[in-house]
Amino acid sequence: MVASVPALVKITEHNVEAACRLTVRPDQEKYSSPVAWSLAEAYAQPEIAWPRLIVEGDEIVGFLMGFFDIEWDRPDDRRSGLWRLNIAAEQQGRGYGRYAVDAVRAEARRRGHDRVYTTWESGEDGPEGFYLKLGFRPTGETSGGQIVAARSAH
Fold it and tell me: How far is CA 119 from the centre of its chain?
């Protein structure tokens, strides 16, 4: 028997309701936005947003949204990276978060970027340890009160 592997799929009219039902652990809710909120932002900014579901077999196990080619502080500072990450509460600890980060890194490389960025809010139950373990390092910047971090896309 072959084990299934995660895959990324686009959000469509067939899976959007299931996507919006995805929830993280209650202690993580203050650190992540609901999928519906992220999809509204993607709809409003389709030129930069890259929303995808993470599925294994027929099950939605997570949601990610990358951002690509945003102007940061000035026109010559264009960045790409991981905007949102929601892994279903019952699916955490199984490598889906790492898979999501690697998928955004691969898409960034495909688009010609050498670095990827993300942000997080500090807190006891926050995602800082996860991102540090995956090689992100704080840049010394903040954005909307969150820590900005970067790592190689390679």
Answer: 10
> Is-contact 67 46, C-beta < 8 A?
no
d(CA 70, CA 97): 23
Please tell me the distance from the alpha carbon of residue 97 to that of residue 150, in angstroms, as a whole number: 16
Contact in structure between 122 and 147 (CB atoms under 8 Å)? yes
d(CA 98, CA 149): 16
pLDDT at residue number 3: 57
Distance, C-alpha 87 to centroid of its chain: 9
Is pTM beyond 0.90? Reply is: yes
H or E segment and range at residue 130: helix 128-133
Q: How far apart are CA 123 and CA 50, in angstroms?
A: 27
Q: What percent of the chain has pLDDT over 70?
A: 98
Strands of the sheet with 78-87, listed across from one edge: 6-9, 49-56, 59-71, 78-87, 115-120, 146-152, 137-143
Taking the C-alpha atoms of residue 38 and residue 66, their distance in angstroms, rounded to an integer, is 11
